[in-house]
Amino acid sequence: MTYCPNCGAPTEFKIPAGDDRKRNICTATGEIFYDNPRNVVGCIVEHEDKILMCRRAIEPRLGFWTLPAGFLELGETIYQGAARETREEAQAEVRDAELFAMIDVTHIGQVHIFYRAKLAGSHYGAGQESQIALLQSEDEIEWSQLAFPTIHRALSHYFADRARGRFELHTDDLGADDWRQMNLDRVARTADEQS
């Protein structure tokens, strides 16, 4: 940040009194601007032993598969945001939602939060950010074509819990090395599938 968004004065990037890290500070008013993680919220939507998956129609990861999810908006609860993203990306309503996974992705300043929910009714379809929305069983999911490592991690927890017959809340930390390794593994699986 070069200029204060409130008054237009230049900002300085320094450690404010009583703090332990550098922040953008308005040189005119002394207002401190904090850069905090962004929340990505979404749902693992269940229906008849299948999961609602969306193929992305936008970058990043255009054409890859994901769960319906996106950034939480101001004024929403985490659940409201997850339900909204499911409506926007998969034209689906959800019910009986339970918090399922919270995954810290600190190297990109995000927290990914997923609910496990039931499809309300039977309607779903591709929203504006999706090429297609499908209900898929575990063996129909193209694991090497998942858009993000957090989707892989959340689904891995989901299917392991389902096999155990007991769902629990999962917390994870996907650091830069984990993220990079999962991407390398996905590239290797894609190459194997194409050969």
Automatic annotation (TrEMBL):
One of its GO terms (molecular function) is ADP-ribose diphosphatase activity. Coiled coil: none annotated. Keywords: Hydrolase. Residues 36-195 form the Nudix hydrolase domain. Its EC number is 3.6.1.13. InterPro entries: NUDIX_hydrolase-like_dom_sf, NUDIX_hydrolase_dom, Nudix_N. It comes from the Bacteria. Gene3D superfamilies: 2.20.70.10, Nucleoside Triphosphate Pyrophosphohydrolase. This is ADP-ribose pyrophosphatase protein. It comes from Salinisphaera shabanensis E1L3A.
